[in-house]
Each structure stands twice: as structure tokens, then as C-alpha cells.
Amino acid sequence: MQIGKLSNEVLREVIISGIDKKNEDIIVGPGVGEDCSVVEFGDEVCVLTTDPITAASNNAGTIGVHICCNDIASAGVRPLGILVTILAPPSAALEDIKRIMEEINEVCRELSVDVIGGHTEVTDAVNRIVLSITAIGKGKRDGFVTTGGAQDGDDIVVTGYAGLEGTAIIAKDYYDSLKDRLDGKLLLRAQNMLKSISVVKTGLLAADYGVHAMHDATEGGVLGAIWEMAEASRKGVYIYKEKLPVKDETIRICRELGLNPYRLISSGSMIIACSDGEGLCRFLGENGIDARVVGKFTDGKRIIATSQGEEEIAPPEADEIYRVKV
Predict the structure, then answer these.
(1) Of the candidates 91, 124, 140, which is a domain's last residue?
(2) Per residue in 129-178, pLDDT tens?
(3) Which of 7, 29, 126, 147 is at a distance of 20 to 30 A from 208, taking alpha carbons?
(4) Of the candidates 89, 109, 112, which has an alpha carbon nearest to the alpha carbon of residue 101?
(5) What CATH number is given to the structural domain containing 303?
(6) In 77-229, which ranges are E strands?
(7) Cβ contacts of residue 180 below 8 Å, gap of 6+?
(8) What is the rounded CA–CA span in Å between residue 78 and residue 73?
(9) Could you give the CA distance from residue 256 to residue 104 in angstroms, rounded to a whole number?
(10) How far, rounded to the nearest angstrom, does the alpha carbon of residue 314 sit from its chain's CA centroid?
């Protein structure tokens, strides 16, 4: 099979279709594009998500905590704790596990999140360290946000920049191979972009402002995230490619490697559906968050307008990061 997440079609037909709901307390369950599950506890809800780290060789602990806490924040809920599973091959060194835990603890301190449990073992079932994290948050029953809440006419707001996480991973993991092809200072700037992959602040502010849906852009990039939000909401979209925010470092690295920056893993970017996108952008800007309106949700097809005309947005496939060859 192809490396990367299962396609949404396969996910729906093979995985989700066979899952039966058995408890009424589960108010948001598995679905294409949904970042979190939500369990009702009276006037409050428990929000949960889980993700492995497979695309990065370096900074796995840092990335793992951020992407799971980003998922919780995309529900408009503050993350409280994480459970950590580390599977290490026999060839791994204890220092490798120690480094991952140091990264995890550092990010948890930054986000005021607790490590509340997990599992660590050495196994020959893997050939490199696999890190998987489950994150938990708590919020009000009437205050959480889903991926599938977009409404006709909502503005599509994109925060951060396309391909941010993927750019940082490539610049770090392939630095030795790229330093003779791209400016070293550019690669170092790209590595530093890893410091900007949290959207916890963004998600909490947007929820307070009053938005209809949120989805953090991970594998499949910003275009994949927009498609998934539209799919979860059963809506069309009309977006403008020139309005999609992307940094020069990402453009230059992707051009060198023949990658599509808008399909590159993009933690650090939140896709938001809001009836007053310009107002939300001003509000987020006042709080130090880059945001812009890139289009609208519609009752039609999923269209992106480019300088060459209009084309339909394809469902996300394997992330561009898995195509890197240097």
C-alpha cells in the first residue's frame, strides 16, 4: 500500500463503516476530517484525540505534543493532559528515548499540559522509534466546535502558513543533502519554523470569538484540510490560490524538491469557518496571529481559482512529505 494516511474513501469504507455507536454519551464520534471525539459528562464534555509521529526523524517529541494539543484546540477546548506511547526497536539507544521525553516535557511546560500516563517498550515489531500521543481536554457542553459545522456563506479563514511543519521537518531531516542546493541560512530559518506549529492560542481565541467550525491542517496540507472540512460539513468551497498564505522558505524548498506546498503537512495553520471572517482576522491580528480570508463555503462544488482558471479541489492523498527524495 501507499505510504501515508489511508485515503478518505478507504477510511470511510474500511474503517468507519464498521463502527457501531453503542453509548449515547458519545456526541462526536469518528468521521472523515473530524479532529476529535467528544464525550458528554453532564454540562461538560471530555474531548479526545490521538496521533502517531511517522514523518519526522528529528523533534518527534516536540511535534507529537503540538499536533495532538492542536487537535484539542481545534475543538475550542484547552488541552489538559497527554498519554504517551513509545515503541523503540532493539537498535535504539536509551538516549534516543530520553531526548524524546525531554522534548515532550518541554512542550508540556510551555502549554501547561500534564503527562498523565502511557507505555514504553522495546520491540522488534518496529524498525525505528514510533511515538503515539493521546491528548485530552475538557470544556462546556455548549461551547465546543467541530470540523463539520461550516455553514453556507461562511468565510474560510486560514491562520499561519501552508506547509509550515513540513518545511521545518525537511530542512532538519535533509539538511546535509540540501545545504549544497539551497542557502544554508534559508534552511536554518526553515528549521526555526518548528517553533510556530502550535495553534492552541488560535483555537481558544477563535472559539471565544464565535466560529462555526475549525480544523488544523496536518497531513494533506491546507488544501487537504479545507477539503476535509467541506466534506465533514457537506459543503462546497470557493477559494483563491493567491490568497493562501505561504512563506518564501516553503516555496523555495518545495520548488527544489518538486513538492506542492499546499499539500504539505501544515501544523501551525488553522482552517476556520466564520460568518465574519474579516472581523475574526482583525481580532486574531490584535492577538499576534496572522490570519486571512481565502474564500467561502458554498452549496456547490469544491473549487480553487488559480491564474489559469478554476479547478476542483481533489481529496487529500498521501502527504507531499513522503515524496521527498534527495
Answers:
(1) 140
(2) 999 999 999 999 888 999 999 999 999 999 999 999 999 999 999 999 99
(3) 29
(4) 109
(5) 3.90.650.10
(6) 79-88, 114-122, 130-140, 155-159, 213-216
(7) none
(8) 6
(9) 32
(10) 18
Q: Output the pTM of the full model.
A: 0.92
Report yes or no on 3 lying in a domain.
Answer: no
* Distance in Å from the first CA to the final CA of the chain: 22
Q: For residue 229, report the phi and psi dihedrals to the nearest 5 degrees.
A: -65, -40
Q: Which residue range is the domain that position 46 belongs to?
A: 8-140
Residue with cell 476530517: 33
Contact 249, 190 (CB under 8 A): yes
How many domains does the chain divide into? Answer: 2
Chain centroid to CA 137: how far? 17
Looking at residue 87, the DSSP 8-state letter turns out to be E
Task: Give the integer Cα–Cα distance in Å for 209 and 227.
Answer: 24
Of 253, 294, 299, 235, nearest in space to 270 by CA:
294
CA distances to 27, 84, 163, 300 from 238, in Å: 30, 39, 20, 9
Question: Would you say 136 and 46 are in contact if contact means Cβ atoms under 8 Å apart?
Answer: yes
Amino acid type, 266: S
Task: Let me know whether 211 and 287 are in one domain.
Answer: yes
Q: How far is CA 180 from the centre of its chain?
A: 31
Compute the CA torsion angle 210, 44, 136, 220 (nearest 10 deg).
-40
Taken as a whole, the chain contains a residue count of: 326
Tens-digit pLDDT profile for residues 63-75: 999 999 999 999 9
Q: Tell whether 135 and 154 lie within a shared domain.
A: no
Phi, psi of 217 (to 5 degrees): -90, 105
